[in-house]
Specification:
Helix content: 10-25%
Radius of gyration: 16 Å
Strand content: 25-35%
CATH topology of one domain: Dihydrofolate Reductase, subunit A
Largest sheet: 8 strands, mixed
Number of strands: 10
Order of helices and strands: EEHHEHEEHEHEEEE
Length: 194
């Protein structure tokens, strides 16, 4: 059975975006897009590198970890607003939305029904892991299905914003199975469901 991995950047205080939901890696963002931790992404997780970065670097690495990406509407619209209708054409791309009626790109499939049912269906299919790349509301809905959580913990505190998981208080335990701290002070923390 395939695994669902929530691979996401977070601040020390647990936020994945500012209060307005804007791209936290953009020009006014608080996440570092440079540093030695980026080499680990290109080497170990090339699947998560979006198309515009691949094109700028002239690279086209094979998928080695993920072959499917899941996004909530708000996360997807960040790329759309930047003129990128499909940031991950090298992956099967699903966007969960009850308000979007048509996909802006033929490679992006809209899902308007229950996210848990869709993920359970995807887990039964043959392939690599499934990457949940955002956002907080979709992560909240899919929390019971998340098998692995990889947090790119950035050395910044912001005070408020969009949390790693949205929703009500509902503790759920994960085990830390791997960690790496880079010279940039970014830490990659990998947790699994016990």
């Amino acid at each position: 059975m395939r695994k669902l991995t929530y691979f996401v950047a977070s601040t020390i205080d647990g936020f994945i975006a500012g209060p307005d939901g804007a791209d936290p890696s953009g020009p006014d963002g608080f996440f570092l897009d440079e540093g030695d931790h980026m080499e680990a992404i290109f080497t170990d997780y090339p699947d998560i590198v979006p198309v515009h970065v691949r094109e700028a670097l002239g690279i086209s690495p094979d998928n080695i970890v993920f072959d499917t990406v899941l996004e909530g509407r708000r996360s997807y619209e960040l790329g759309l607003e930047a003129g990128i209708p499909n940031a991950y054409p090298h992956l099967r791309h699903y966007v969960f939305s009850r308000s979007m009626t048509a996909s802006p790109d033929p490679g992006v499939e809209l899902v308007s029904d229950d996210p848990v049912s869709k993920v359970r269906e995807l887990k039964q299919q043959h392939g690599l892991r499934i990457w949940l790349c955002g956002g907080a509301q979709l992560a909240r809905s899919l929390r019971p299905e998340i098998d692995e959580l990889i947090v790119k913990l950035h050395p910044v505190v912001v005070g408020s914003g969009i949390p790693l998981f949205g929703g009500a208080f509902d503790p759920q335990r994960f085990e830390l199975v791997e960690s790496h701290i880079y010279a940039s002070s970014v830490a990659f923390l990998t947790y699994v469901r016990p």
